[in-house]
Amino acid sequence: MRAIIVTDEAAGTAGMRLAERPEPEAAINDVVVRIHASGFVPTELTWPSTWADRLGRDRTPTIPGHELAGVVTGLGYGTTGLSVGQRVFGLTDWTRDGTLAEYAAVEARNLAPLPGDVDFTVGAGLPISGLTAWQGLFQHGRLQPGQTVLAHGAAGAVGSMVTQLAREAGAYVVGTGRAPDRETALDFGAQEFVDLENDALEDVGSVDLAFDVIGGDIGRRSAALVRAGGTLVSVVGPVQTRPVRGLAIDFVVEADRAQLGEIVKRVRDGRLRTNIGTVASLDDAVAALNPSARARGKTIISIRP
Ligand SMILES: NC(=O)c1ccc[n+]([C@@H]2O[C@H](COP(=O)([O-])OP(=O)(O)OC[C@H]3O[C@@H](n4cnc5c(N)ncnc54)[C@H](OP(=O)(O)O)[C@@H]3O)[C@@H](O)[C@H]2O)c1
């Protein structure tokens, strides 16, 4: 099969190339998915799991990409819950070959059914951003109606999901980003917008939940805004500065079929939308994932229609 591979950690996304790889075989409880659309998070080429397996052994050449939407073509020994021919979407294991490929083997529990009226490109744009927002807001942040959420990077993949889900849950949402992101963030439902390069973040006042997708100085200053009993949720590594009288948590998103079901239900009924920018073919994937200008929205690789 055709797949994008990486072999050189130092090269970053510029080291991606299209290659021929063996088709994957389904292990116990796996399905094989014929991939129609694939999502990729650029930072994954800096994650140790891209380069080594769970025992620390080199696993290159690696197929990156951990989000897929496609159709089940095979079942492994003992696999239940999904069937051949079923449309699915979901998040694949960080330490296995990924989704920038024509096929992937995935544990069935990592996937959820993709309704027939949701495009594969939309399905591939949902798993990481949708699950990260859901888990950060509701599992780790224990968001309640009426609370105030600081949604950093509100025009980005995770931030736009955080903004929409928090609004739907009855929160007041302050989005942040760069100046050109203002309209997009407000369009996703942010009630206020802070341009982090020109406005004072401190003018936001106190918040119940700060959702950090940026880190560094922004993470440190966000911790100071969390009111007593509130939470700083970070998806960019361990929190350096904790809220004085609140909680801090950093986490890595996990696959969850029930949560994927909640997310796609909201996409179907119009409560949630993805922020998809470029859609490119596998032939054009390397160029699309190495844009010369700032990418607007998430890049999706359409493997087949
Ligand atoms: N732990 C986890 O499970 C998990 C899951 C998903 C994502 N992540 C991480 O979360 C981060 C965001 O992911 P994403 O997919 O949402 O990325 P994204 O789509 O690029 O969104 C990030 C947004 O924040 C903006 N931004 C970044 N730094 C900024 C700054 N200093 N000032 C103003 N705006 C800034 C970006 O603008 P520009 O494009 O102009 O920089 C972009 O609009 C990544 O580091 C990713 O690895 C972690």
Rg from alpha-carbon coordinates: 19 Å
Number of strands: 15
The average pLDDT value, as a whole number, equals 97
Order of helices and strands: EEEHEEEEHHEHEHEEHEEHEHE
| Individual helix count | 8
Poorly predicted regions are none
SS-derived structural category: alpha/beta
Biggest sheet, in brief?
Answer: 7 strands, mixed
Distance between the termini: 16 Å
Helix content, binned percent: 10-25%
- Structural shape: globular
Ligand kinds: NADP nicotinamide-adenine-dinucleotide phosphate
Question: Can you describe what's shown?
Answer:
The chain is globular and about 55 Å long. With 305 residues, it is of the alpha/beta class. Helix 4 (157-168) links the parallel strand 8 and strand 9 (172-177). It has helices at residues 48-51, 120-125, 127-140, 157-168, 182-187, 216-223, 257-268, 285-288, and strands at 2-5, 17-20, 30-39, 67-75, 87-91, 103-107, 111-113, 148-151, 172-177, 192-195, 207-212, 226-234, 247-250, 276-281, 298-302. The two termini are 16 Å apart. The longest helix has 14 residues, at 127-140. Helix 3 packs across helix 4. Strands 3, 4, 5, 6, 7, 14 and 15 form a seven-stranded mixed β-sheet that branches. The chain is built from eight helices and 15 strands. The chain is 22% helix and 28% strand. NADP nicotinamide-adenine-dinucleotide phosphate binds next to helix 3 and helix 4.
